[in-house]
Fold:
Amino acid sequence: LVAAGQIPNTQKEYAAVQDLLTRARYAGLIDWDAIEDRNREPEKRRDWPSARHLVEEVAQGFRLDRWAGQPFYAEVWVEKAALAGVLWPIADAYHVTLMVNRGYSSASAMKESADRIRARCLPRGPHERPVILYVGDHDPSGEDMVRDVRDRLVEFGVPDWLDVRKVALTMAQIEEYDPPPNPVKRRTDPKKYRNADGALADSRAAAYVEKHGESSWEVDALPPDALDVLLQKTINSYVDKDKMDAVITRENVIKARLKTLAAHASIVEV
Structure:
């Protein structure tokens, strides 16, 4: 709604839309499955009606490493959990890790990410260069995030040939899509640029305001289809398509064999 220019980008309008969506779901106007809450997920060990159902599910979801033999190892990092659902279909299609870092990540989250990237890339050396494709706001923190992510991953042992590239939101995209800007942020705002006395609120804001002025833009305001196209084009620039297609062909052969196996899985039933 913000991207379409239907409502201003304010906390008051956010709360109003949230209330309307809740009431619309109760009224049956919007399907409950159309909206997900990623912060309250129950946990339970999986079970299956039979061994055949398990093998069928394995066959359906089976994948080889689609980045095997590629010159790069890519991950997609996004600042906000709300965008994970928008970006997941692209990440899934290209078999890349999608990481919601929620701004400046904790030390534990950075260490876990560094361990994952090191385990993948160190044995292969510079022949498989790690790259983080970052999606975040265009504001003081969002612009600083590329540096922060790279510095902290390297600190935890990721090779210094790591590349962190901001896919969105960039000033070129702001000029092209003209998303609504955030108002000037004051002391009472969650992301403040200036204190009540007019002084800049943090060190990152000074360089940002000098370069871009006091307006900022949230990546959420970019049209979802535009964001998908941007991410897909960026991932494509790192992919050797022939090699990935060859892996997918092998993958489909194995899937077919697993489906055949599923038909005979009833022999293990008791």
Notes: The two ends are 55 Å apart (CA to CA). The chain has a mean pLDDT of 85.
